[in-house]
Structures are given as C-alpha cells and as structure tokens.
C-alpha cells in the first residue's frame, strides 16, 4: 500500500469522528486529481465543480462507512463517478407536456451514452456502447481516466490480471468493429 493511501485512510478515520481539519487535509490532498478526472468525463466545468463538492460532502457524511480494505482514492473516485452520473441524469431529465402518455413523461439518456456521443465518432461510440459493462468499465478507467492497471484493479475490485485481460479483449472487439 502506498504512503498516500495510508495517510488518506488515517484522515478518513479522523473525518469519521468529525475532525474538520482532517477533512480539509483530505480535500487538499485529493480535490486536484479528482477535479481533473471529472473534467475529462464532463464537458461542463461548472457541473464538474458541483460534482466535486457533492463528492466531498458525501465523503464527510459517509466516512464512517469507508472500508479500509479498499484504497481511499478508489473510494473517493467511486463516489465522484456516481455523483457525476446522478448529476447528468438530473440535468438531462426532460418533462413532457401534460397529455402525453405516462410512459414518456420522464426520459433521460445514460450519462455514459451522452459522453460517448459527444466525445467520439458515431462508429466508435456505437462500438463502445456494444461492449459489455465489465469491458467498458475497464476501458473507461484506463483510457478515459488515465488510471494504471493497479488503480483500476482497486477501483473495480478485480484482480490486476483480470483488468489486463478485459482491456485486451475490449481493444480486440473495438478493432474488429471498426475494421
């Protein structure tokens, strides 16, 4: 385990006891890299900033539930991505006028589909969409977020060998789909 992970875990234990100074230090150590990764996933800087704040508010409230068998950075990133997806859904909900069928009253694209549609060619976005969620999660962590195999392993809770296998399989499927 890296020294930074140990220190972040120590800070999270203090945050769980309501230590505001530890929270400020945890924020200072992690807000920068979280902000960069959120901006990579979200084209709206204001939304990314909102999600970052929501992530740390959740961390403050949920620190007692942190599982020390995971990395603190992975735990924070899991919270941040969850909040980003929630934010995309909130911002994309469209209410239909009264009189429309009830089934179509509220519609929302998934945040991932929206990001893929804007960031990549239609062919690549379609090929990525057809990947299984397990393969797509590995590609998102390693390619879009720039995580290492080890970080992806910790984030997704799977062995490093599985990360490598899934990444290789996903690249192979994408290569065939785009050939």
UniProtKB/TrEMBL annotation:
Gene3D superfamilies: 1.10.1740.10, Winged helix-like DNA-binding domain superfamily/Winged helix DNA-binding domain
Domain RNA polymerase sigma-70 region: 26-92
One record GO biological process: DNA-templated transcription initiation
Keywords recorded for this protein, A-Z: Sigma factor, Transcription, Transcription regulation
Pfam families per record: Sigma70_r2, Sigma70_r4_2
Domain RNA polymerase sigma factor 70 region 4 type stretches: 124-171
Cross-referenced NCBIfam families: sigma70-ECF
Name under which the protein is recorded: RNA polymerase sigma factor
């Amino acid at each position: 385990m890296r020294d930074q992970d140990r220190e972040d875990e120590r800070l999270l234990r203090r945050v769980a006891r309501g230590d505001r100074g530890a929270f400020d230090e945890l924020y200072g150590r992690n807000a920068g890299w979280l902000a960069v990764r959120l901006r990579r996933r979200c084209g709206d800087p204001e939304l990314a900033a909102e999600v970052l704040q929501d992530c740390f508010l959740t961390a403050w409230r949920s620190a007692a539930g942190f599982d020390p068998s995971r990395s603190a950075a992975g735990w924070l990133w899991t919270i941040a991505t969850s909040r980003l997806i929630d934010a995309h859904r909130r911002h994309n909900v469209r209410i239909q006028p009264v009189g429309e069928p009830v089934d179509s009253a509220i519609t929302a694209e998934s945040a991932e589909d929206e990001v893929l549609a804007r960031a990549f060619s239609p062919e690549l976005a379609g090929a990525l969409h057809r990947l299984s969620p397990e393969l797509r999660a590995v590609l998102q962590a390693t390619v879009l977020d720039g995580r290492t195999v080890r970080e992806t392993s910790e984030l997704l809770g799977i062995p490093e060998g599985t990360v490598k296998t899934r990444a290789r399989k996903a690249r192979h499927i994408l290569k065939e789909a785009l050939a």
